[in-house]
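quick one
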Amino acid sequence: MKKEQNKDSKIGIMGGTFDPIHYGHLVAAEGARHHFGLDVVVFVPAARPPHKGMREITDPAHRLNMSVLATASNPNFEVSDIEIKRRGTSFTIDTVNYFHQTWPQSAIYFITGADAVLEILTWRRVNELLDLCSFIAATRPGYRLENLAGSLNGLPPGYIDKISVMEVPALAISSTDIRDRVRREMPVKYLLPEEVENYIYEKGLYLD
Ligand code: ATP
Ligand code: MG
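structure w/ magnesium ion:
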């Protein structure tokens, strides 16, 4: 994104590991763009996500390349390498701070799936985060958002209003399942863009 552009724009940020990126991510991002009138959705692959435990994650360069391939055909989608460049554990507060400082006039919307938003109380400096941006929580099969307010009752009053639930077509797709399928030589076609599928086979990702 160019610094001089988008003065009063609405910026969506889609954070994730994207290991690999799939249609669940893309449908959530496009739904948010449309529903909230976002000018752009920036996909930000994490260098190292705080919540992923010990599993080895794929080389950031591959996850970045796959994100670029998956989003290339959408003129409203962009990819940022700021978390990857920053290295170390990727905290959303640092990323949102960067966007806020670079585009101080813009409204920032952080897009997550239902599983991620239910864990938001464990995120670093969550109050500060909710001062800087709104959250859009996309529905995701297997995670219930009916009682989101109840689950988040540790948040100070008012903050819960900055989190909107957004209904999206249910796609029971996860990166974990895709990695598993590749390893077991099961099909992943139609779960993710063809360009990403081809990239995975070309580079021999997820074979062990
Ligand atoms: P993994 O299985 O490795 O955790 P994932 O499929 O959950 O991968 P992430 O990169 O962890 O993908 O997710 C990035 C963001 O996209 C998270 O906020 C997550 O909730 C959301 N998301 C992922 N898949 C879906 C889906 N199928 N529907 C809605 N949201 C999704
Ligand atoms: Mg996940």
